[in-house]
Amino acid sequence: MFERTSAAARKSARVQEMPAAPDAARRMLAFFQPSGR
């Protein structure tokens, strides 16, 4: 249970810091793309 909570917290932190990044638009777009890699 804690592993999933930790992963969700990390993802949430990434989403919150994205708009402040210099390449925010590119990262935001990449985040919401389905990962087919």
Alpha-carbon Rg, integer: 12 Å
Instruction: Give the amount of beta strand, in percent.
Output: under 5%
**How many domains, in number, for the residues?**
1
What order do the SSEs take from the amino end to the carboxyl end, as H and E? HH
Number of helices: 2
Major sheet, described briefly? Answer: none
Characterize the structure shown.
By secondary structure, the protein is mainly alpha-helical. The chain has one domain (3-32). The chain is built from two helices and no strands. The longest helix has 16 residues, at 2-17. The radius of gyration is 12 Å and the shape is flat. Residues 1-21 are annotated as: Disordered.
Structural descriptors:
2 helices, 37 residues, mainly alpha
